[in-house]
Amino acid sequence: xxxxxxxxxxxxxxxxxxxxxxxxxxxxxxxxxxxxxxxxxxxxxxxxxxxxxxxxxx
Length: 58
Prior knowledge:
Structural class: mainly alpha
Largest sheet: none
Oligomer: single chain
Distance between the termini: 43 Å
Number of strands: 0
Helix content: 55-70%
Protein backbone atom coordinates (compact mmCIF):
# COMPACT_ATOMS: atom_id res chain seq x y z
CA UNK A 1 0.00 0.00 0.00
CA UNK A 2 1.28 3.50 -0.85
CA UNK A 3 1.77 5.89 2.07
CA UNK A 4 -0.45 8.92 2.20
CA UNK A 5 1.59 11.93 1.08
CA UNK A 6 -0.87 14.80 1.31
CA UNK A 7 -4.36 15.78 2.38
CA UNK A 8 -5.88 18.75 0.56
CA UNK A 9 -8.91 20.77 1.61
CA UNK A 10 -10.95 23.35 -0.23
CA UNK A 11 -11.60 25.84 2.57
CA UNK A 12 -13.28 28.54 0.48
CA UNK A 13 -16.84 28.23 1.85
CA UNK A 14 -16.61 24.43 1.83
CA UNK A 15 -15.33 23.51 5.30
CA UNK A 16 -16.18 26.86 6.86
CA UNK A 17 -17.61 30.13 5.65
CA UNK A 18 -14.79 32.37 4.51
CA UNK A 19 -17.42 35.02 3.83
CA UNK A 20 -18.39 35.12 7.51
CA UNK A 21 -14.73 34.99 8.52
CA UNK A 22 -13.94 37.99 6.29
CA UNK A 23 -16.86 39.98 7.74
CA UNK A 24 -15.68 39.29 11.30
CA UNK A 25 -12.11 40.20 10.38
CA UNK A 26 -13.24 43.48 8.82
CA UNK A 27 -15.39 44.35 11.83
CA UNK A 28 -12.43 43.67 14.13
CA UNK A 29 -10.20 45.82 11.92
CA UNK A 30 -12.69 48.69 12.04
CA UNK A 31 -12.90 48.51 15.83
CA UNK A 32 -9.10 48.47 16.04
CA UNK A 33 -8.88 51.56 13.81
CA UNK A 34 -11.36 53.39 16.03
CA UNK A 35 -9.46 52.36 19.17
CA UNK A 36 -6.27 53.63 17.48
CA UNK A 37 -7.81 57.06 16.99
CA UNK A 38 -10.08 57.17 13.94
CA UNK A 39 -12.76 59.70 14.84
CA UNK A 40 -15.69 58.38 12.81
CA UNK A 41 -18.70 56.20 13.63
CA UNK A 42 -18.06 52.47 13.22
CA UNK A 43 -20.65 52.16 10.43
CA UNK A 44 -18.94 54.90 8.42
CA UNK A 45 -15.49 53.35 8.79
CA UNK A 46 -16.88 49.95 7.79
CA UNK A 47 -18.58 51.46 4.74
CA UNK A 48 -15.34 53.14 3.68
CA UNK A 49 -13.42 49.88 4.17
CA UNK A 50 -15.95 48.04 1.98
CA UNK A 51 -15.49 50.66 -0.75
CA UNK A 52 -11.70 50.24 -0.63
CA UNK A 53 -12.05 46.44 -0.81
CA UNK A 54 -14.43 46.70 -3.73
CA UNK A 55 -12.12 49.06 -5.61
CA UNK A 56 -8.96 47.02 -5.12
CA UNK A 57 -10.33 43.44 -5.27
CA UNK A 58 -10.06 41.45 -8.44
